[in-house]
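Margin note: ligand = NAP.
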Amino acid sequence: MKTALVTGASRGIGAAIAKRLAADGMFVYVNYSKSREAAERLAVEIGGKAICADVSCETDVKRMIEHITTERGGVDILVNNAGISMIKMLCDTTSEDWDRIFGVNMRGAYLVAKAAMEKMVSNKYGRIVNISSMWGEVGASCEVAYSASKAALIGFTKALAKELSLSGITVNCVTPGVIDTEMNSHFYDDVIAELTEEIPLGRIGKPEEIAEVVSFLCSDSAKYITGQTVGVSGGMII
Ligand code: NAP
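Resulting structure:
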């Protein structure tokens, strides 16, 4: 049974991915930083384990991977999903805001991938999927820090894919559009209605629709796909 680690899996897209990978037959670690109860509930539901770590903290990440290595020999499948957003114009964005966004969205992915890939390299097998955003591809006004961090994650995916290709590890990226999760819960109905009008398929996406694509990228059917960015935005970005 393969071991998967999904970061930021206590709710939203990460929770849907954790459920889907468990349904695919994997043992899934449900990572969280604050939402312990939700993570533990989900872990019980899917027969996995909740594991606490702030992905932006190197000590936390090392401890998390050491724990998984002791319990199950390491991580075979890593989904870097943990992420935070912020709506602010650049002129109002402080350097602390900038570091916080990059800390979770980019440094987090770097820290977890670096720690987890050790076992993948020695096994000559592994799958890494990074959850970026369509804003990382095209940029969003009032979300410069977020867009830049997600663009960095796309570059990280491409470079790491090349670096790990001879080790039998694929590294891919998924760029969701507007997905119905808590991250978007602060938007007023009229904003959601405006966004929906811009989506060719005519609706907001569901977390499970991201999970489907991640599941495929983690499967044997995707063994010849690496370094790719797969857009799941209902056609909002074409
Ligand atoms: P969400 O509902 O806000 O969930 C975020 C998850 O990340 C939570 O489980 C949260 O757990 C965890 N998290 C946050 N900071 C963390 C940290 N420092 N360490 C570990 N876990 C952390 O967000 P979502 O909408 O599901 O988004 C998931 C990913 O998809 C993010 O990377 C986001 O940027 C990306 N995305 C989302 C959308 C969208 O429309 N929803 C679109 C494009 C891309 P705790 O509460 O325990 O911290």
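DSSP finds eight helices and seven strands in the chain.
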